[in-house]
Amino acid sequence: MFGQGIALGQGLLSGKVKVFNDFIVHTNIDAESGISIGIEGPSNAQMRHVDNEDGSIKVQYKPMVPGYYKISVKQNGLHLKGSPFDVPVYDSKTGPEQPFYPKSSLAGHQPYPHLDDSGPFGNPNKVKVSGRGLFRGITNVQSEIIVDTRKAGLGRVNWTVSGPGNVQTRHVHIVSGLHKF
Q1: Which of 36, 40, 106, 178 is the most exposed place for a label (fewest CB within 10 A)?
Q2: Strand pairing of 15-16 and 85-90?
Q3: Where are the Filamin repeats (predicted)?
């Protein structure tokens, strides 16, 4: 179940350090009623917002270091569709034209040799997913899903399993870019 509003804007797709990044939260009620916004990441991010008095809020955040930030937007305790948003934040000097790699990588070296550098983060459309667990599940029988990200580029692998009951999942890292769930 999601909150009734929607959050949109460039600041939910990517951001830059030491500048304010914007997005808009649209609601079908009083703009600030029941809206909560949280930002988690490698640094604190200064945040401010303005009620546009048209059922929307302009939100701005200013992170201080590059990395991935998780932005949660909730209305009355429920995440809006798409929330939490995983947002890559770049150094203002390099910008999105340069590939972003985690800070722990060695300077000047590609930390993930299997990556296709077709863009700042590769192409998630190149992720391949297979396995019998995609199409059919049997109670108390283990299913398997293989996720191949080797040609997709840099990014995170997140997964959820939804259904009428609780499902235990396990992630097995086979080789760099190949995962089994």
Answers
A1: 106
A2: parallel
A3: 1-89, 119-164
